[in-house]
Design a protein that fits this description.
By secondary structure, this protein is an alpha/beta fold. The chain is built from ten helices and nine strands. Adenosine-5'-diphosphate binds next to strand 2 and helix 1.
């Protein structure tokens, strides 16, 4: 099995804030891999390091054997990235935006029309593609950003809280899509602070807290390790995100 992402002893500080501390993680090709953790735990920073937007202060990162900050173009060609709060161009229509993205990746004319049409259909945006993005709702923009990340058939998808703002139907479409892509060998890494979502979508999950990896494995492994057999994952999730003492939960999970 090929390794899609190999990170070892990554560190990234923002002034006094340790966004990522000595984090090592190996993600195999074809997985739908969840990064789970409360706000501020370092999920977005880790994703930006993987994409090559942030250079780590220490440690090593490679994407299919390539270092993102040494081979930025080669890495970006194989990655599709949906950032946390995607900024689209307000003055373009959805179709114009997606054609622009296709052109950046050098997709041919015919191919791009078909592919854009297909995805617009799948995400229930057909009929709205000639409206300006400025008039789109947050969920509609999120869908356009997701489509934009998929057009060039990336081998590795990095999606930062991609289900934010999506209605249940669209969330289901994304979920099924990631599943299908996984069967085709595409690797997806996506972040969420909602355990339920991670459980529903991911083969493996890494739990981050304050920049450190506190637990990693399949859902069953995480459950067993947390020693919370009696409680449901929802309970763990509730404690993680519900404003109770997060630290004790994380300590449980990391034992
Ligand atoms: N550009 C930045 N400048 C300063 N601090 C940052 C920056 N980006 C992230 N941080 C800090 O790093 C920590 C991790 O942030 P982030 O990776 O966004 O977490 P998450 O995505 O899990 O919510 C937080 O404390 C955040 O405030
Ligand atoms: Mg984030």
């Amino acid at each position: 099995m090929k390794v899609a992402v190999n990170a070892s002893s990554l560190t990234k500080n923002f002034g006094p804030v340790k966004a990522i501390s000595n984090l090592s993680i190996k993600i195999e090709e074809g997985q739908v891999y969840g990064l789970l953790g409360p706000n501020g735990s370092g999920k977005s920073t880790l994703m930006k390091i993987i994409v090559g937007l942030i250079r780590p202060d220490g440690g090593e990162i490679s994407i299919f054997g390539l270092r993102p900050y040494e081979r930025p173009l080669d890495v970006r060609r194989i990655i599709g990235y949906v950032p946390e709060n995607p900024r689209l161009y307000d003055f373009l229509t959805a179709r114009e935006y997606l054609e622009f993205v296709s052109d950046l990746y050098g997709l041919d004319k015919e191919g791009k029309r078909d592919r854009i049409g297909h995805f617009l259909d799948a995400f229930d945006l057909s009929g709205r593609e000639d409206e300006m993005l400025s008039g789109y709702s947050q969920g509609m923009r999120q869908k356009v950003a997701i489509i934009g990340s998929l057009l060039h058939r990336p081998r590795l998808l990095i999606m930062d809280e991609p289900l934010n703002g999506l209605d249940p139907r669209s969330a289901k479409i994304v979920k099924d899509l990631l599943n299908r892509l996984s069967r085709e060998g595409v690797t997806t890494i996506f972040s969420t602070h909602v355990l339920e979502i991670a459980q529903a979508i991911c083969n493996r999950i890494a739990i981050l807290y304050r920049g450190s990896l506190v637990s990693e494995g399949t859902m069953d492994e995480l459950k067993a390790r947390a020693g919370m057999k009696g409680s449901s994952l929802e309970d763990i999730f509730f404690m993680l995100t519900g404003g109770f003492d997060v630290r004790s939960v994380v300590e449980e999970l990391s034992r």
